[in-house]
Every structure is written in C-alpha cells, then in structure tokens.
Amino acid sequence: MITRVKELFNDSSKDLKKLQKQVSQVNKLESKYEKFSDEELRGMKDHFIELLGQGKALEDISIDAFAVVREAAKRVLGLRHYDVQLIGGFVLNEGASPR
Question: What does the alpha-carbon distance between residue 18 and residue 14 come to, in Å, rounded to a whole number?
C-alpha cells in the first residue's frame, strides 16, 4: 500500500513523511477524544466553525477534525479508520483528485 501512495506522489518522500506525521498526530489525539461525551464530540463542529471564523485555515484544524471524525465513526458505525484511510483523506483535503 505504501508503494501505491509513493506512486501517487512520484516517490516524493517529503510528501509521504508529512502525511505520516499528520496521521501520527491524529493517533496521539485518539485518547483525548475517546474521553469526550457524545455531546462534547458533537460540539466540536461549532468549535471548528468558530475557529475558521477567527481566521484559522482548514489546515490549522485538520488534525483535530480528523481525530473527531475518527472517534465519531467508531461510536456510530463501530468502525475505526485505518491510517491509510486517513492518508487518503489528507490527500483529498489538500486538493488532490482521486485517480
């Protein structure tokens, strides 16, 4: 799978390292958001909107947003996103189109 990701980035290890770092940061937040109540988790949407309204960019909130979505999926669907799925999400979030 990593080989396929490398192909998407023309073997750019810099891009891949950035993605791996982002996924690592999401993983570190997992225990934080597991402790949130369902209501607190729902409230994160309003928090993100507020941050964007204060001038933050999507890139500034993406790590927390991905961690919140992962936790919501675990609770609602009973499924946890794999790291490679997060990588795909980050790639799409940065504007790349799927092949």
Answer: 6
What is the C-alpha separation between 66 and 45, in angstroms, rounded? 12
Which tokens is 3 given? 């080989």
DSSP secondary structure letters along 13-64 = HHHHHHHHHHHHHHHHHHHHHHTS-HHHHHHHHHHHHHHHHTT--HHHHHHH
Q: What is the sign of the dihedral through the CA atoms of 3, 73, 27 and 21?
A: positive
| CB contact at 8 A, 93 and 58 | yes
CA distance 22 to 72: 19
| Each residue's pLDDT tens digit, 39-95 | 999 999 999 999 999 999 999 999 999 999 999 999 999 999 999 999 999 999 888
CB atoms within 10 A of CB 9: 15
In this prediction the pTM is 0.82
